[in-house]
What does this fold into?
Amino acid sequence: MLDSGTELIKLEHNINYSPTFISTDRRRGPGQSTSIGYWQIGADAQQGVTHGPVFKMEFVDVIGASPGGYLKIWGIDNQGADAPIYPEAYFAMVNEQRLIHVYLQKFIFCDVVGNEVAPTLPHLIVGYKKRVIPFVW
It folds into this structure.
């Protein structure tokens, strides 16, 4: 049960899925610390309905989606360019190779050295979410 999701969302190239605290405290200015607010999944807008982070990615159809042929995936704690690069062909394997268990920050389609390449063909990557942010990351 810990590995199952309550919401499935379609993940998009170069969207930030990190949990982001949104302050609703009108007594404090922007950037000042407060505990009044809520968490949303997504830096710019709420991604999906539930407020739990994307904790698993399923690569349903990515082969040939971009001319670069690779994907770069950031976990929540990855910084800057520090993220592994996977060949798209890796996700053509069966069963477990189609799944990556990670608290997702973002992913991009890229070339072999990690330079971003926009996808040119339809693709499907599914994100699994829970209802709430877990107590322990």
